[in-house]
Amino acid sequence: MAHLFDANLVRLLCSCGLMKPITGIYFCRHCVKLRCSNCVSHELDMRYCPNCLENMPAPEARLKKNRCGNCFDCPSCGQSLSTRLSIQSPDPEQPSRSIQRKLYFLSCSGCRWTSRDVNIPDQTVATGGWPEQEPPNKERILSLLEHYRAVALRDKMDRERKKQAAARVKKSPASFLRSGDAGADKLSSVSSSLASAKKSLAAINTYAHKGDTPLTSQLTPAEASEEVEGLPDDIFTEPVVLAQVCSVEQRLRSPEQQPSQSSSLYPLHKHMLVKRSLRCRHCEHNLSKPEYNPSSIKFKIQLGAYYHVPDVRLVRPVPLSVGQEARVELSLCNPTPHLMPLALLPFLPHLTTAHIDAGVTASSPGPRFIEVPTESCLPELCTSVTLPQGQLLLAPRDDTAEYGDADAHNSFKDDPQVVTWRRANKVGVTVCVTPEAVTDALYIGFLLRYDYTNNMISASSGLSSVGPVSLGPSADLSSLGSGPPSGPSSLTPSVESRTVTLNVPVIIKLGAVSASASESTA
Amino acid sequence: MPLYESISSLTLHDEKHTTVIFDFGSAYTKVGFAGETGPRAIVASVVECPDTGNNVPVFESSDPQILRRRITLFILKIYIRCLLVNPKERRIVVVENLLGSSIIKETIACVLFRHFEMVSVSFVPSHLVALLTLGVETGLVVDIGYSEASVIPVFGGVAILNAWQALPLGAKAMQMSLKALLEERSSVIGEDGEATSLQDSDLQLLTSQRLEDILVRCCFVSTPERSERLHQNKADRSNEPPPPPPDVLYPLSGERTLKISGTVREMAAEVLFETDADNLCLPSIILDAINKCPVDVRREMTANLVVVGGTAAMLGLKKRLLQELRLQSTRGDMAPYTFKLHKPPVPDNCVTWLGGCLLGSTEAGLAPRSVTREQYLAACKSNAPMPDWSSLVYNTQHDPRAPA
Hints:
Strand content of chain A: 25-35%
Distance between the termini of chain B: 59 Å
Radius of gyration of chain B: 24 Å
Radius of gyration of chain A: 35 Å
Largest sheet of chain B: 6 strands, mixed
Number of helices of chain A: 8
CATH class of the largest domain in chain B: Alpha Beta
Structural class of chain B: alpha+beta
Oligomer: heterodimer
Helix content of chain B: 40-55%
């Protein structure tokens, strides 16, 4: 039964050209197109600590380098550290003091590392006050930063001065007339450029950040030395205790210190996590937006394809052998509350890619819109596939259907050649596949053409029922008909309901093809 | 809520101006923000392959499409897991190896501009910016990374490009050498306490990560005298080898323990100093680079050696390198130079990142060196989006002899 839930067996072709399972695809209702994580823009909504579920505003996060102030990770194994309490018994040397003191230390329940291992003193308050580690050579790096800031500023001023001087010489007609006494002209231009430099200097000084960017920064350059630290003396005699030498992972957890001995490990502040929202690049509408609360796993907006695109699943895996026709049973499920006419059409990759390209040029993007390059990752598709002919209707999704009498299938006049079974909003269809060669994985593809009823709450009332819009790859394939009657326009004028015909390419991985089975049975 | 509004608008303004610094390496990528003293994170340059679910190296693909997809996933992962800021509308500094592949550079630019809509991207040469961290303008920069070691002399802030040297000597070469040595000279202790030679199943357990771990935790670079005696012993077993350092028991799996012999610990890094078929090794390419420099600058080069890159942090490597340089320079017909080494203010693997950070921290310094999105999109039509020193189009532009 695992194949029913293996999302990677049945994949949809996104509008950007990538194949993704239906769980990894979004459906933009405004562009009426499939989108995936490759072709949407990701935005970070909020940061929160995964341990205390406290959310942290952006300025604070920047100040604390995206780390939680209260929670710690084990520097040795990466688990969360817990605060432990130890009661200090009265000092034996001073029996007169009988007050017990509570002391706290950090301990890892995973690898038994404690803050006492590295001689961090116990704290008297549970919430912290743990000593922080300063990056080595911090002063030097900050002075370097200051220095290069000043150098760059000086550079910029020099450039501007040159530009101004050049412009002045070009502009003034007098410079042409007095070209004979170039010396005087040069002098005047120099002096004037000096004046302008002074002016710009003053301007910078007033706007400079707290005025602490001096224009002349003196930095002592580093001195090279003839001697470097070599091997420790005892390396050829002392055995290595692996537990005392940090692994690469442990070192890189604190990039600025990179401790090499486990005795210099230090508790790490817990790194924050983010909630992110996704936005369609074309229409700038949100495709997914989580709720603001860190402990909530719900979404405010979630336009996953599994709410809007019929779900195709492989009912059971079939043994495949070369030259022998196999009947592959698929189930189709309608997730929308509307009647859905549907047909399976042969999938012609070159037509679809042309369609993608046409869509790119046809859509009128904004001025600052940049197209993500289209991908092409289609596998080799089996060519001899017989798809069920004709159109079939999928009943609307009805959550009460499984409690009532299942006589819904009577109302549909199904062609038994096409529909093998029908239950509530699902139908089963059979696809005949004749593999041609031995492969590890046989892929079949088809175009799922269905009528999608889009309910959108629009601000402008009045315009409502719109006829079918064909988004098909080629014009000769006529649309499936008008579909269900469009939403009653008189009842709710604010809800715009329109039916469009969509084509979604579906690629199914069928499994390995064996060679000799046909001969052995024949 | 006027108070909150003012705060949020302020931070939005500030946040947009924080430049992000990337230093993509073939094994580890360093990322962080401008104006800080060190990178925020050092992450392995691997992404999960969407098709197979295995971790695959990001930059090891020659197919531009696969490369682009991996880099996109990787940068997205960095933004979501490490940087936690909106990727859009930012200035970026990418520290690049001058000798790196142009396909990777073009693809990074494409991903940053098209997928993440950055304001501007600036590619800065890693060897050049490494000197910024020292406050000097002249030096011979040796970058020993994962896949290769490259040497570029820099004089007065200008790279002497015709003196470049590179060899595929780095952590990767050491890992391969270590694996061969382990196979030859080490044993595995099984559940029953019996020591046997390495089986195929044990070799499968020696993944790149594990070899790296063994190199970092157990191995070191030996002294020249011991190395000489080891090599003599290797050539002729009658020569007495130096007393080996103690063995290390390294757990491979639940029941298998690798016994790393002391000789392996000290021999693994010898690959950097053994001459190859072209008679080249790490010290010799450094001397070659010095010899290719103009004669007036050679003395300054030898007095300002800068060794950077993750592999340079190996125990004893810098000392051995200096000793070998002094030794080999006396053998040839070189003038007697004094060799001096700089000590950067940050760990060796972050030096080039810090250099990019120093350059990216200032708007005035960054703006003239970056390519904006508009420029990139306009240049895309002319089929040469990113300026590249190896392209004649950009080299003849400022040449006074070239026709305008």
